[in-house]
Automatic annotation (TrEMBL):
<feature type="compositionally biased region" description="Low complexity">
    <location>
        <begin position="21"/>
        <end position="30"/>
    </location>
</feature>
<dbReference type="InterPro" id="IPR011992">
    <property type="entry name" value="EF-hand-dom_pair"/>
</dbReference>
<feature type="domain" description="EF-hand">
    <location>
        <begin position="56"/>
        <end position="91"/>
    </location>
</feature>
<dbReference type="GO" id="GO:0009791">
    <property type="term" value="P:post-embryonic development"/>
</dbReference>
<dbReference type="InterPro" id="IPR050403">
    <property type="entry name" value="Myosin_RLC"/>
</dbReference>
<keyword id="KW-0479">Metal-binding</keyword>
<feature type="region of interest" description="Disordered">
    <location>
        <begin position="1"/>
        <end position="48"/>
    </location>
</feature>
<protein>
    <submittedName>
        <fullName>Myosin light chain 2</fullName>
    </submittedName>
</protein>
<dbReference type="InterPro" id="IPR002048">
    <property type="entry name" value="EF_hand_dom"/>
</dbReference>
<keyword id="KW-0106">Calcium</keyword>
<dbReference type="GO" id="GO:0005509">
    <property type="term" value="F:calcium ion binding"/>
</dbReference>
<keyword id="KW-0677">Repeat</keyword>
<dbReference type="InterPro" id="IPR018247">
    <property type="entry name" value="EF_Hand_1_Ca_BS"/>
</dbReference>
<feature type="domain" description="EF-hand">
    <location>
        <begin position="160"/>
        <end position="195"/>
    </location>
</feature>
<dbReference type="Pfam" id="PF13405">
    <property type="entry name" value="EF-hand_6"/>
</dbReference>
Amino acid sequence: MADKDKKVKKKKAPKEEAPAEEAPAPAAAAGDRQSSRGSRKAKRTGSNVFSMFSQKQVAEFKEAFQLMDHDKDGIIGKNDLRATFDSLGRLATEKELDDMVSEASGPINFTQLLTLFANRMSGGSDDDDVVINAFKTFDTEGKIDSERLRHALMTWGDKFSADEVDEAYDQMEIDDKGFIDTQKLITMLTASAEDEEGGEAA
């Protein structure tokens, strides 16, 4: 009889434990559901930005982000931008740095940086001021070092081949010391964009 009591107790004990084990499971599942909803929402929000770029572009932006994030904290701040400009040989003013940081709606992490790029690109071709500012980063006293620009064109972003750079340089005036007149280059590029837009409208 004692054996039957033990068996009954053993049988009852698992039954009693089973509901106790099941009770936390729905709570955990509900927690999973909430977090998966949050994950889906986060993925959905982020995927819109990521879907605007090819995997190659996202990888290149990630590489650029890592180069710009000098303190490696995952956020590009004013000091990171200053260090980036310094490494390019250009001193940026406090106002320029403040303006760049204030373009973002929050801290500039990688997703925020992609969002900034997406917003800029959604307008189609670059505005003239974007082209002007891009080339002015290479400008030193009205001239651009053609070898430094060649290196940048072949290293970052949509990388140019040596032949593509040579073809572009055939369209530019380069002096005997290897410098490009910044203003002439900007005029050529912005006039070409206006000509193209005028040609498409006609």
